[in-house]
Each structure stands twice: as structure tokens, then as C-alpha cells.
Write a structure and sequence with these properties.
Elements: E1 8-12, H1 17-28, E2 32-37, H2 40-43, E3 53-57, H3 63-73, E4 77-80, H4 96-99, H5 101-119, E5 127-131, H6 135-138, H7 146-166, E6 172-178, H8 187-198, H9 202-209, H10 215-227, E7 233-239, E8 242-246
Helix pairs in contact: 1-10, 3-5, 5-7, 8-9
Length: about 250
């Protein structure tokens, strides 16, 4: 029997990059996968055993979508991976609209789906895994408000985990912070931009980054959190070597 056989895994942002790898890992682990992306064509080639892959083309920032889809499918695993690609330029060259892009997409998406997961609520023992970013810890000076939005996603996961515990819902909620990788549509231009900012060759910048996070590594990490006590709460840095726990912050207010 496979690890996730008989369970429903809903992946918000399954069309490309790390989200695609996560959806494929859940399929390989035996889950029935509900894959959501804004563009239908991105989901057309996602395949698995008959009846195990269900695709939905929708705007993940729409709260009506979040409420309806969760009520229909009642997943045991909810992976929130969707997000916008930031405009890469120094802070003084942004407008407020470009600076706040990831607040209006990534944070809004996380808020709506997390809220609906707690309100429904998902069944006891369910897992919600939020894809944040290593930028939440290390910053990202060429990405406008991206780093701040990713930090807020991590905070939202922590706040929701506290509410799950306080209300005795039994929903495990965690955050994953992958390091910048050149293997995604978001990461490739960022690697080029930061190499140019440092005045070094792109190959040298990649060498300094170490082993990259691949879609397969991200998928394995999400399966790990979905099937082990590690997924009950907490934040994890994701590198080419896998998950590493990040020390939690004590509440101060």
C-alpha cells in the first residue's frame, strides 16, 4: 500500500515548477490529487491512475473558489503553493502596484484557503502545508515586497496552527521555505538578476548557491510533511539536501 493511498491531496498552484513536482509526488504516493492552476493548459499533461487526478482551472485568490472547492473535496492534505512572479528591480524603481504584487496574490491566496480550512474545518489529522520562501529569512532586495509577503505566509501558517491547537481541530499546519532555485520560472530570472547585481557570471552565482531545489525534492518534502509528525506544525527551510527545521519564535504580544 502506498503512503497516501485513500487520501485526497489538493494542490493550489500545481501547474508548473515546484507545485507541479509536489502534485506529481502526491500522485506517485497514491493520493487522489485535485490540481488547481489559473491556466488550464498547464494542467493538461498532469496524469496518473484513472480517477486519481482531477484538474480545476481557477483563480486561487478568489475566496469563493477556496470555500467551494474545500467543501466539495474535503482533502486530507492541502498544499498552498501558488504565487506571482515578482518584478525584478531595485526598490526605488518599483511602483506601489509592482511592489505589492505578492501581497495581493500569495498572501491573499494563503489567507483565504487557510481561513476556509479552519472554518470548514478540515478533518482531524489533516495537513496544510504552505509554500513560503527562503527570502522570508534572507531578504530579496530586487523583488519589491516579495520577502515580506513570504514572511507573512509563514506567520499565517503559524497563527493558523495555533488556532487549530486552541480549538482542538487536530489540523497540522506547517510552512516550507525553499531556497532560490534556477529550476523554476520564478527562480531563473532572479538568479540572472542577482548575478548581475554582484558583477559575477551566472554560472559562478549558481555554484555559490550549492545544490538546487528541484521539483522532485519539493515533492518529496511535502510528502514527508504529509505523512510524519513533522507536518503537525513548524517551519522548514528546503535546500537541495532536503528539509531543515527553523527555530520557532516565541509570541511576544
Amino acid at each position: 500500500m502506498k503512503l497516501l493511498e485513500g487520501r485526497v491531496a489538493l494542490v493550489v498552484g500545481a501547474g508548473r515548477g515546484l507545485g507541479r513536482g509536489i502534485a506529481e509526488a502526491f500522485i506517485d504516493a497514491g493520493a487522489t490529487v485535485v490540481a488547481i492552476a489559473r491556466t488550464p493548459a498547464q494542467l493538461a499533461t498532469l496524469s496518473g491512475p484513472q480517477g486519481h487526478v482531477n484538474v480545476i482551472a481557477a483563480d486561487a485568490t478568489d475566496p469563493v473558489v477556496a470555500g467551494n472547492v474545500l467543501a466539495q473535496w474535503r482533502p486530507q492534505i492541502l498544499a498552498l503553493v501558488a504565487g506571482a512572479t515578482p518584478l525584478l528591480r531595485p526598490v526605488h524603481l518599483h511602483t506601489w502596484e509592482t511592489f505589492s504584487t505578492n501581497w495581493q496574490t500569495d498572501v491573499r491566496m494563503t489567507f483565504h484557503w487557510m481561513r476556509e480550512a479552519l472554518l470548514l474545518p478540515l478533518s482531524e489529522g489533516s495537513r496544510v502545508i504552505v509554500m513560503s520562501s527562503g527570502a522570508a529569512v534572507m531578504g530579496s532586495p530586487l523583488s519589491g515586497g516579495y520577502a515580506g509577503s513570504k514572511a507573512t505566509q509563514r506567520f499565517l501558517a503559524d497563527y493558523a496552527a495555533q488556532e487549530s491547537q486552541r480549538l482542538k481541530l487536530g489540523i497540522g499546519i506547517s510552512a516550507v521555505l525553499p531556497k532560490l532555485t534556477p529550476l523554476t520560472d520564478l527562480g531563473r530570472p532572479a538568479v540572472s538578476a542577482y548575478a548581475a547585481r554582484l558583477g559575477i557570471a551566472e554560472d559562478e552565482y549558481r555554484r555559490r548557491m550549492g545544490n538546487p531545489v528541484t521539483p522532485a525534492i519539493a515533492g518529496a518534502a511535502f510528502v514527508q510533511l504529509a505523512t510524519s509528525p513533522e507536518g503537525e506544525a513548524g517551519a522548514y527551510m528546503l535546500t537541495g539536501e532536503g528539509l531543515q527545521p527553523i527555530a520557532s519564535r516565541e509570541a511576544v504580544a
